[in-house]
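Batch 3, record 17
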Amino acid sequence: MNYKETIQLPHTDFPMRANLPEKESEILQDWARIQVYKCIQESRKDSEPYIFHDGPPYANGHIHMGTAFNRILKDIIVKYKTMAGYKVPFIPGWDCHGMPIEREVIKELREKGQNLSNEELRESCKKFAQKFVGIQKEEFTRLGVFGEWDNPYITMDPEYEAKVIDIFRVLVENGYVYRDKRPVHWCTSCKTALAEAELEYKEIGSPSIYVKFKTQNPKVSIFIWTTTPWTLPANVAVALNPKLRYDFVKVGSETLIIASDLKDAVLEKLGIKDYEIEKSVAGEELEGMTYKHPLFDKECKVILSTFVSKESGTGCVHIAPGHGYEDYQVGLLYKLPVISPVDESGCFTDEVSEFKGKYVFDADKHIIEALKKKGTLVHNEEFSHSYPHCWRCKNPLIFRATPQWFLRIDHKNLRERCVNEIENVHWIPRWSKERILHNILDRPDWCLSRQRRWGIPIPVLYCKGCGAPVLDTKVIEQARDIIKKEGSIGWFTHPVKDFIKDSCRECGNKEFVKEKDIFDVWFDSGASWTVIKSQGLFPADLYCEGVDHHRGWFQHSFLLSMTNEEKSCFKSVLTHGLILDKEMKKMSKSLGNVISPMSIIEKQGADILRLYFSALDYTCDVPFDPDGLESAVTAYRRIRNTFKFLLGNLYDFETKLPYDKLLELDRLILHRLALLIKKVKQGYENFEFYKVYHSIYNYCTLDLSKFYLDILKDRLYTYGKNSPGRRSAQTVLHETLLALVKLVAPIIPFTAEEVWQHITLNSQPSTHNSQSVHLELLPFANPEWIDEKLAKDYELIEAVRDDVLLALESARNKKLIGNTLEAKVTLWTEDKDTRDFLQQKLPNLPNIFIVSQVNIDKVPEMSHLKKVDAFVDKAEGKRCERCWIWSKDVGLSSEYPTLCSKCVRVLKEDNYER
RNA sequence: GGGCCUGUAGCUCAGGUGGUUAGAGCGCACGGCUGAUAACCGUGAGGCGGAUGGUUCGAGUCCAUCCAGGCCCA
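Prediction for the assembled complex:
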């Protein structure tokens, strides 16, 4: 007889091979069919809400690894919080305005030779953004991310734009907004400002001049170096580095002040060999020293700044806040005037009568000439360096101060209030608080205006008569209402009279022009909390983005919330590091190290990528390593096979046994399961998903596969189908399965769902009948399962088991045994308590060691090192053909001569027809 | 140059308040099983703890400096 027919081998349709790319698509269809997100919201409609506000990704391309990572983290949180019983509405957003899209669109149109009007350009940008919102929506869905995909917030939607305008209205009402000059990159041929990303750097030759700025004592000069002589008319200060030393170098009858570290290089260039050093002082001692302006009759001061470098020049930097960003920054600290006597085509205005009308680059030689006349020019040569050019017309750019709109950070103690409010926010990880704090403390006023076209217009007007700006809430409200109906294009299409009825307060003129500038995109996205506010869900419980957002979205959202709501828009902020390549280098097209998340998903599946990400401690930057992805595949297989084994052995499970009827080993596993549940929940709660991953994975591998399940096979397969031993095991397998599938669901939602579907099909006694595992609550760590005494007993048993395994391995190497069931194990210890303990557990030990016999007796070789010695010998008796265990009672039954008495009894008492 | 962060086996992670030979899993090598089978089980080899100084009887764990890498700013 073939006794294989008489044992209960695992049986399940759950496939070993996942074939995730295909399976995940099927599950996505299932989810769409049952509208899983809606079902979840419906089932939680009376639950406590957890508001997780989504930071909008930029809609200008396919998602990259970083976006995928961010989305997956957020989704794990959404799914966890949902399963923890909260109502978690998740409204995804997209950031649609801004330079990158505008630039891309202009590039495309230029290639087609088209030159579009403002309206047409904006329409093209809108279509461009819409296209990628659609693409990204699909890609995010494919990752298994749940959310209101039908109802996202989009920063170019009219309603959203109106909200942004309204934020601005409140700022104006409260006096935060002012207008001032600030230097920007300016193209004199296109007559337009350019953004950082529009610059192209090229090598060009510039004049390199060394100039004496005479101090009160005409014999003593501060010695400066510049490559832009035309900026000298706008000079207002000289900056020294407070930490550098400065030498007073006497050359003939004159003295030059030069940084010690640069002195040799400078003097060599000038061919000066005879000199003496009169004295040497620290830069900070020279603060406030006055000097005579190089061209005009006025006095200026020496200031200090750490940006002054000792790498080039003289260590004395000519400062023109109207023509350089660093100059501007340091100028703000010293309250220096921003002088920029250059018009939009790059010609000097009548502020500098001497050079009026001259194009700045042409003016260089005239200025050099003027310096020569004054006798302050020391050296002039051609100098080749990298210089920014316009990406459109390829001409060199200048820095030019232009009027901009600002938000005053210190108005109404805003900065101070922010610093205080930071304390009331939970920053995860902790250092993230330090970072935002420094960013807020150090930041200059927020420049709100951009000289671009694709964005939300700044709703202010200018009087045609006197040029005075009209910053009026009535105008803004009017703009808001029109924009709410027609989108921000309304600002450009409506005539001015639709926005204002009054006449100019300054001059009485009745004609106005509209502002052309648009808002900084951080103003757009920083206003996004209005989306949750309008649904009565303010403030958010959580914001979660990459570290770079301490200067980006976190900060700008926070600022606007503090100005408009007087409190933070988030209760806690979770920061993650960035995804780098295997070598910890940034992924970039130029390095050719970019890996697309979608390529991984197509080949291996979203669950693999999700599992991989979950294993990383993302509080710092993390590498994306394709080899690491392979270990995620391995881990996935282990988890999957664990599920397959659990499902396979529950196909006929009907009756749960009560806890007190369970066998000892089974109760032990419930004890450990309770601990696992606690640990995993704690991991999720702290957003430490790598702890979740490691706990679950180790549980599957160590507690289940290598220990419990291996031991259980005998009981599951060979015991009577309805025997208490088998039902006890199944009861625990069932608990384990239900717990595991839920614990794992936030991380690998597709596989969990697949398992869930098989539970529904195969094991009736489960109490669930919900359509998706994601509707379930996380398992409960039943305190009844905790049994410390049992856990302690098994610590010892497992330690003995380790010794037994070593002895078995050694016997195997001696070819004494192959399968461990061929072994008889003899244990001995001199410790009587331990011996008594083992004696008491003896009936269970063969099973736990997966050997045929265990006895306690003196062993031939005593090690005296181990607490318990294990000795392996060939098992006694014969091998039972059914359960493969060796025993002396094989052959006692005439009916079943090749079976042991246990199997004989099983065959006689149980019915094996399937 | 400034602010913040990171650096334990090839990889992902453990290592309360400093204390005996630094732990897991994966990977690797070797072996077993053939009733989880493109699965499962066992054994083994891998770490000068980024570097150097210091505090201490004693440091991966505390301090300083440096090196490497990242983000943001300049």
